[in-house]
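User: Assemble these into one structure.

Assistant: Restating your components, then the assembled model:
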Amino acid sequence: MLLIKIGGSKKFDWENIAKDLKELNTPYILVHGANEYMKEICKRMGETEKIIISPSGYESRYSDSKTMDIFLQAYSGLANKRIVEVLRRNGIDAIGLSGVDGGLWKATKKEKIIGRFLEEPGSKNKVIRDNYVGKVDHVNVKLIRLLLDNNFVPVITAPAISSEGEIVNVDNDRAVAVMVRELSIKDMIMLFEAPGLLRDLDDISSLVKNISIKNFDEMLKYAKARMKKKVLGAKEAFDNGLERMYWGDGRIKSPVSNCLQGKGTIISR
Amino acid sequence: MLLIKIGGSKKFDWENIAKDLKELNTPYILVHGANEYMKEICKRMGETEKIIISPSGYESRYSDSKTMDIFLQAYSGLANKRIVEVLRRNGIDAIGLSGVDGGLWKATKKEKIIGRFLEEPGSKNKVIRDNYVGKVDHVNVKLIRLLLDNNFVPVITAPAISSEGEIVNVDNDRAVAVMVRELSIKDMIMLFEAPGLLRDLDDISSLVKNISIKNFDEMLKYAKARMKKKVLGAKEAFDNGLERMYWGDGRIKSPVSNCLQGKGTIISR
């Protein structure tokens, strides 16, 4: 079984991706983001996104109840259903689910978070409570197997649901690592807006074709900005039993098969 | 098996509904609307909803691609997931799905529609093409049975998917009638913002407690505005094999059990 994680960019050509997925002859689960959909809807609604910076410098989205309403619109509504539409049109029996549905992604809510807002330069760290964020601990394995056994392709996106039954924003990459552990997944694909891991961001020929997760520190050195999170996510997935991770560009033709053929970066044990 | 249809009002107290549903000891499917969520999001996005009036006076929402994007946000995103959240918090193993997911509601798209826009008084009837609307013909019985057999409560909402694989807006009440036929449903509940069918809209004591669908013409005479659609939907459901339909107020305490105890309107064969 293959786990495929596709970023939330609007630059991906889903017709392209769907045609490529149709040729796969192994069962798979798809997890997607919707970050750019979220940004667009916030803008149209006149809402400004707020970013919390933790004392250690880690950035996360401020997710109060109002923000989570928009999150649901963007992730579980617009992006998830438009993706399912394209997949179905290409003959894939896709079923779209959020982590909330059937308790698919069970999370622990962070009751409070300490940090300051990026949008308030010079402000001090404070306790932020009205923030619906959490960390995925478990996956509903029974539901996923039920769908796969009946030849459906699960198309999954955030948010998750907390043990108290509240919708919480979670990090997709960490949720995916929990799926790896609980579903004993060995192979994973990640598509994003880059050809793979580059030694030099400005030089495509510096693509790292093969690397072992043992060289984690080296990977972290090459990774810039949001790519750092991907490297950390990869580490966690390997810690959880993953054997191979394929990184590739979601914007090109046949992105999935190209990835599997080693045209991006292959990370191994 | 019970089919429960709940309108898209924001006046319903879902905590209340969930607590009542938790006490039901029969399997059920939930179908909900999200009309007021849709109106609110349109307003916040600065989009004006447009209504098409057919030559026979039937009103429907103009559903171009842009409108359907918002429809997905409101119905499949915000409303569906917030409802699933409340149900799950009350111990119900709810799984939210749109008619798109797993091909749950299969529709035939209307390639063109003839009508004029309500917002353009005095305009003539014309052919409107850029309109993603359709009529549900079939339900994915296998998927619904799979979920019910595994003790999930399906929480379903529009839109549907056309045979060409396009997301289309459909009438929930007609979709429900197709579910009645294909799942051999005998009992159905409808909750809306009224105590039931009233002989006189301004007089709650004029509630019709029991009526046979044979008196369809009489029902249609009492029904005003949007209630007419409910009466037509009821007729279709009975034509499709339904035995009993319970109408009741979604705004009161214990709305489902009150309905089943005959405190609203009971329609029989």
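Chain B has a mean pLDDT of 95.
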